[in-house]
Amino acid sequence: MCKHILNAQVSIRAPCCKQWYDCSECHAEAQTHPLAKTMEMAFICKKCKKAFRKDMTMYEESDEYCPHCDNHYVLEAKTPHAVVGVEGEDARVDARMLKDDRVKQVQNRSIFVRDDFSDILG
Length: 122
Fold this sequence. Notes:
4-stranded antiparallel beta sheet, 14% strand, mainly beta
């Protein structure tokens, strides 16, 4: 599971150390050497779990799909990013000001304290 690209569809085999990584940043974190460049890349589809090779010199639009299951693996990468929210603007964040009808409201039931004088005959 790649922590750099959230929607990674394939794993890539690094030509320098022959190990599988989800992205080049995962390779940089795990290894001390730089990622070697190559024109023939090996992939493993994360949907069907089958390996395949692609020649990057003759890469076409139809090569964006897994040859085994037609999974579209060339997608715009979704990377995680920090979100700063202002507390109090969104009711989902701070719901202290909202009245919840499911909670029974405390009523002051006394004959000595009268807030509503509309029911007194007079």
